Predict the 3D structure of the following.
Amino acid sequence: MDPLLLSCGVGPLLYCPAAYDTAANSIIKQNFGKNYSFALCLEDTIGDDHVTEAENQLINSLNDIFKAQQDHDFYIPKIFIRVREPEQITRLLAGLSDAASLVQGFIIPKITLENIDYYIHSITEANSRSDRPIYIMPILESPTMIHLQHRYEILYGLKEKLDKISDLVLNIRVGGNDLCHSFGFRRSDSNTIYDIRPVADILTDIITVFGMDYIISGPVWEYYNGENWDKGLRSELQMDRLNGFVGKTVIHPKQIPLVNEAYMVSSNDYEDAVSILDWKPESGLLVSGNSSMERMNEYKTHYNWAKRIIALSSTYGILK
């Protein structure tokens, strides 16, 4: 599969604490729909004294899904595990046995220059024993990147290391709430993350460093009820897409359709993208008005945009 299509295909990523004993049943009964990915979290959502209990429940949940799929068909999302230490990758894959086939990859929280090598070693070892790719999605959320004096050194240092296993890096993710926490900030349902300039500047730097080579997913929106939660989420999704993010971490099923809606491709964009990718460079003329004569398409300028539009259309669909 096209790597761009695979990376865009993560879509809305629904987080669930791994300790929830209802997770498997919700997937089997398709309570969350059919167009999302799923993350079982062993990190911030689990108390430090309950990790083993949560790991055991995670294994039980995935085994229940694995057994259920033998009996009847249902939508199984791309499933990821958010770990808290590199050793969990090896331990969980071994404990899952055949059900490990359900795991698309691992989410790496609070990635830093100090811990990245350990995670790279663990995921490389896991892939050496696997007959299919097992991906990672590192989260850029550590407070170490806040200080301007070292931010660029850290971001470029992390990218240099991740580039060595780029074929296993499905997404780069960002931790908006963790970065806000470092400052003591919390946005209301009437503000987007982009209104919090110190955090927005960090997100901009992440896009600048990683955005030309990786798909980067938008930060979590923590509201899912109340008068303005959906309007606020739509506003942030509009800014996410404008700034180059694809997909979003979600924390409630009600957020899933809004994310899918926000990333649907307009018919004009789709038609222009197809036209640009079908361009014959040898024709000599590399610029032309689009079919509706509303804007200019330029092969050299819009080629990368067109590839992304086609990938988005395959995951999210086309607006009629």
